[in-house]
Aldolase (Thalassotalea litorea), 255 residues
Amino acid sequence: MDSFKAALANKEPLLGTFIKTPHPHITEVLAQSGFATLCLDAEHAPFDRKDLDACILAAKANRQHVIVRIPSDHHDTILNALDLGADGVVIPHVKTAQQLSRVIEQCYYGPGGRGYAGSTRMAGYTTRGIEKNLEHNKNHTSVIAQIEDLEALDNLDAICQVSGLDCLFIGRMDLTVALGETDPNSENVKKIVNQIVATANRHGVTTGMFISNLEELESWLNEKVSLFLLGSDHSFMLSGARQLQQRFKQATSAT
């Protein structure tokens, strides 16, 4: 597979989706759908280490890029996701450049960074030497910083200049709440999202986002946003069920 990290760096239009159900069958099914990546949502869904292991295995068995939105920026949380073979991590609530620098250091092998083990899925279960594992870690690990707090807005220029950042991901729903709003499409929220994108573009940083209104897609693509994590397994089930019920109602009302 081509590197997901390289695709982010190239600012290619990338479509992924969230997975909220901690069962490998869901990951396996969605891996057949042609997404650029699947994001296991371990922040807001009940993924434990065993669940992540099985779902990442299901993705890799189907040559599917997979990233993990982890529940915290703790060292063991990052290490767990990457050792299991995830192509990267989405770090929630990144607020300062110092925090992001620490997180990035923990994603890579080296002094003060990620602990080395050659027996993991990421390392090919001892089938690759240390040099290849170091190279793989360097070239295939994506660090995605989620911006969703008002404090982050004050530090955005510094955050964008942190070496090793692969993508800023805009957490629009949390920003909506932080701004005292209830509508993610309010003018105030849109203004802030535009400011984040403009700042990232000024620094040459790749941006990504979740949007609920797909009518916005073209405008954000025009603003050079490239990573879109849209929908989820839950939303697909609900929308499919609603469409089926609506179609059935149409059929029964016509008879």
